[in-house]
């Protein structure tokens, strides 16, 4: 994600963003919940493949397949259609990935390093689990989960949009010139302020319509701190891209790149929102 775009890039980005937002609303409020579960399962597998495969952090194809299967299994374990406890699913997948990874390394010990096993755990379990915070929030039925799940998305993407325009209008001082040359300090500050305001306004609206009683301090915290964490998430995944020598993780989203290019901030913000919601309720 950057703060300066060409005219055509901006049009493509905005147009796809609008269609994407409409689809998200359909998945949340119109289509059956299983559609959202399937969508997030696909995103998890793609995120795993992008992080490990596109970067060549895991070069062994069999290991990459194992990681993709484990990522899919974790997403499936979150489904309302699966009768197993999520803790049991998590423990089982950790065991499968552990045994499978070292079995593959023993077979390909001359070309596969232990570092690939470590990256496998991060890419196949940690990243999907953090992304699936969105589904766990959505499943908070007694607290209007389908409504409040919009807040972490607003904190991540809304703050990113505010940072984009603040950077274009006021950006002078580089934030991380090596990792992300177009990001500015002014853009980051605009993102934090904009994120706090957007989430606060959304929370006030939700409180008025759905009687949610979201504390205003929690809304400001989610918006402001969420913007900071979103920026860290963006830069963190950008570091991996730079070290891997790639521009984008993928091209599945026109104008945005891959799943990780679009959801890098959400991966950091959604768990914060989940923790915050569990504390206040």
Shape: globular
Number of strands: 2
Q: Structural class from helices and strands?
A: mainly alpha
Major sheet strand order: 1-2
Quaternary class = single chain
Radius of gyration: 19 Å
Q: Report, as a whole number of angstroms, the end-to-end distance.
A: 33 Å
Helices and strands, in order, run as HHHHHHHHEEHHH
Low-confidence stretches: 1-5
Q: Please outline the major beta sheet.
A: 2 strands, antiparallel
Q: Approximately what portion of the residues adopt beta-strand conformation?
A: under 5%
Mean pLDDT: 92
Give me the number of helical elements: 11
**Helix amount:** over 70%
Summarize the structure.
With 281 residues, this protein is mainly alpha-helical. The protein is built from eleven helices and two strands; from the N terminus they run ααααααααββααα.
Outline the secondary-structure elements.
Layout: H1 7-29, H2 33-54, H3 61-77, H4 86-107, H5 114-131, H6 133-138, H7 145-148, H8 150-170, E1 174-176, E2 180-184, H9 185-210, H10 216-244, H11 259-280
Antiparallel strand pairs: 1-2
Helix pairs in contact: 2-3, 2-5, 3-4, 3-5, 4-5, 5-11, 8-9, 8-10, 8-11, 9-10, 10-11
Task: Describe, in plain words, how this protein is organized in 3D.
A two-stranded antiparallel sheet has the order 1-2. The radius of gyration is 19 Å and the shape is globular. The protein has helices at residues 7-29, 33-54, 61-77, 86-107, 114-131, 133-138, 145-148, 150-170, 185-210, 216-244, 259-280, and strands at 174-176, 180-184. The protein is mainly α.
């Amino acid at each position: 994600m950057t703060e300066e775009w060409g005219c055509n890039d901006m049009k493509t980005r905005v147009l796809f963003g609008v269609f994407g937002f409409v689809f998200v609303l359909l998945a949340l409020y119109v289509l059956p919940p299983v559609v959202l579960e399937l969508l997030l399962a696909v995103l998890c597998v793609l995120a795993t493949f992008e992080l490990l495969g596109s970067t060549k952090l895991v070069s062994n194809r069999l290991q990459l397949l194992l990681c993709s299967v484990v990522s899919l299994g974790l997403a499936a374990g979150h489904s309302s259609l699966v009768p197993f406890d999520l803790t049991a699913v998590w423990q089982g997948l950790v065991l499968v990935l552990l045994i499978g990874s070292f079995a593959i390394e023993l077979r390909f010990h001359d070309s596969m390093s232990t570092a690939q096993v470590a990256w496998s755990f991060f890419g196949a379990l940690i990243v999907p689990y953090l992304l699936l915070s969105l589904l766990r929030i959505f499943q908070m039925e007694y607290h209007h989960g389908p409504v409040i799940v919009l807040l972490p998305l607003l904190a991540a993407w809304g703050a990113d949009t505010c940072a984009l325009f603040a950077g274009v209008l006021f950006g002078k001082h580089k934030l991380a010139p090596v990792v992300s040359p177009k990001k500015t300090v002014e853009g980051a500050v605009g993102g934090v302020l904009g994120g706090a305001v957007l989430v606060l306004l959304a929370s006030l609206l939700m409180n008025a319509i759905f009687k949610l009683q979201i504390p205003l301090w929690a809304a400001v915290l989610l918006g402001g701190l969420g913007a900071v964490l979103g920026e860290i998430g963006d830069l963190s995944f950008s570091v991996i891209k730079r070290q891997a020598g790639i521009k984008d993780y993928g091209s599945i989203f026109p104008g945005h790149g891959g799943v990780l290019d679009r959801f890098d901030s959400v991966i950091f913000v959604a768990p914060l929102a989940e923790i915050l919601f569990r504390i206040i309720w």
